[in-house]
Design brief:
alpha+beta; 5 helices; binds iron/sulfur cluster; 4 strands; 183 residues
Length: 183
């Protein structure tokens, strides 16, 4: 952890002003990056190759590990959702992600040039994702989800006493997590 108490306090103020209270500061070296997460993207996920911010459009697992190792301070933000219909999730995630990327920009403008945000779900900005970085509809806004960066979200967030469980029905409560890499 490199940020001073005062710097953290100022950033807490920024987070609160934007309406975020359900979050924790973490040591990014505790973010668990695993090959099995990438395997789950490659085999079993319908978004593989179809999401412009999903594998194979994200770095290799080794490069993801390197990326996280370059940070000393990060925030995990928690979002809870319960959908009436599975198709409602797209709009819910897209709205939250659009707000999150604005937060990343505010932190950048506050002097944190390394600020980088990982969405709480797939991008979800467009009804149909173009599937490639080159043709992405909003390349300046779209970011990958932690899972797309090979993060074992389950094991990582549990270290910080966040709640997360495998859902067996779509209408069960979802716990989603965004990672804000700060410095
Ligand atoms: S902005 Fe649109 S095209 Fe780009 S990653 Fe998001 S959903 Fe896909």
């Amino acid at each position: 952890m490199n940020l001073s108490f005062k710097q953290r306090q100022a950033l807490d103020g920024l987070l609160h002003t934007n309406g975020y209270t359900d979050y924790k500061w973490i040591d990014p070296h505790k973010i668990i990056v695993s090959q099995w997460v990438r395997m789950k993207c490659m085999f079993g996920c319908g978004e593989y190759g179809r999401g412009a911010t999903c594998p194979p459009n994200t770095p290799s697992v080794a490069d993801c590990r390197q990326f996280f190792s370059e940070y000393s301070d990060a925030v995990i933000l928690h979002f809870e959702g319960k959908m009436d219909k599975p198709e409602d999730r797209h709009a819910w995630s897209g709205k939250i992600n659009a707000k999150l990327v604005k937060l990343e920009r505010e932190i950048f403008l506050a002097g944190y040039e390394k600020a980088f945000l990982l969405f709480m779900d797939s991008c979800c900005f467009c009804k149909d994702c173009t599937g490639s970085r080159e043709t992405c509809d909003q390349p300046r806004m779209a970011r990958p989800a932690p899972e797309a960066m090979a993060v074992d979200v389950f094991s990582t967030v549990r270290q910080f006493d966040f709640n997360i469980n495998v859902r067996t029905e779509y209408d069960q409560k979802m716990d989603r997590y965004s990672f804000l890499m700060v410095a």
